[in-house]
């Protein structure tokens, strides 16, 4: 019986131990579950703001574009962007200190930022916390590492300032270089025009009888007939001058009453003469003169001639290009060529005339210009279109008003006007002695402190109070640089002006305006055909 009782109690103990272990396991499991629940609850409380913010971002992704997303102060995209900007700065500084490994690590994380931002921009979905957190943490640690290495805020600021200055210098250099290249393109004579000049010069050398006749033609009565309409053009561009003359003749009511006075240099003189001797101008009179035969235009009379002959001026204008601090446009010899300044000597060149219209060689005439001669200038010398409606065309934009010589005599807000189409009353010019005023101001500006260069600044001074405003439709400017001129304004204009670098005879001309100029070229001329095909 004892054995049986013992045998009976043994399984009971085993069952009791089994239940004890089962209860202990249950309590342990419950504790473990409770521990995990508490841990996750703490994590939830810590990350709850981030999760809520991310949920808001996800819910509003359909309404916000990427620009709004990256500007939002609560978005991960903005955090990534700001971290990336700072990291880029440290990449530059690390490279400057030859810490290439740190620069490589930063660059790697920057690429990760860029990939996330690119993905957000492409998909339209905001960057999530799971995506942003590892990148932001690693990037932050690298930035702290960069600071610990010795790249503190003061060093960063100094380095960034120097880097910004270097970038500005590079940008300025690039801007100047592009301007130089544009200026070179604008000044370069196309091969076809050079070919034309050569062929015309060869023709002129063969015209021995015509050369004798040209000397006799200088005493033609039409050249000083005050009952005719006189126009002057000063140019060394044969084709451009031909377009000015041809367009004026074609659009004139009475072409036989027109007289054109052309002055060119000694190199182009023969070609210019040959061209106008071989072209029909509907009875209009054309006189071609050589500026080198104006012996009165010398150093003792003209300040600009004296300045041109000085070694300093020749080195500046005609010497090698020496730096980026000089505006390339101002080194163009055209700005100081005698042909360009000849407009200030019109009364001396044509002493027997009372009125004359001055035309630049980059204009096209679209209407009859003879009504200009009957306009009342109210005693003024110069009739010109004012340019105040456009930017940079008031006196203070052209002249140095910090100089008392300028500021004491002129209004900085006075309206500028344009050369290109001007009607001059030569009687009033002589009475006001405008050429002497021009000489005075040219001498005052011998050191270049009153204005930079060009003919308009001294003209604004010399014709101050002596200019009569003309209707804007007489002269529309900007076809050499402005792509957006109103077509109606162009159609209504008596004269359109291709002022700017994009001249119509160059490849860089604005295509929209080219036909306005090309229609007045005599395409049937054999030399033009030969040079175009050659």
TrEMBL record:
CDD domains: GT8_like_1. GO terms for molecular function: polygalacturonate 4-alpha-galacturonosyltransferase activity. Pathway: Glycan metabolism; pectin biosynthesis. Keywords: Cell wall biogenesis/degradation, Glycoprotein, Glycosyltransferase, Golgi apparatus, Membrane, Signal-anchor, Transferase, Transmembrane, Transmembrane helix. GO terms for cellular component: Golgi membrane. Pfam families: GAUT_1, Glyco_transf_8. GO terms for biological process: cell wall organization. It is found in: Golgi apparatus membrane. The chain crosses the membrane at residues 16-37. Belongs to the glycosyltransferase 8 family. This is Hexosyltransferase.
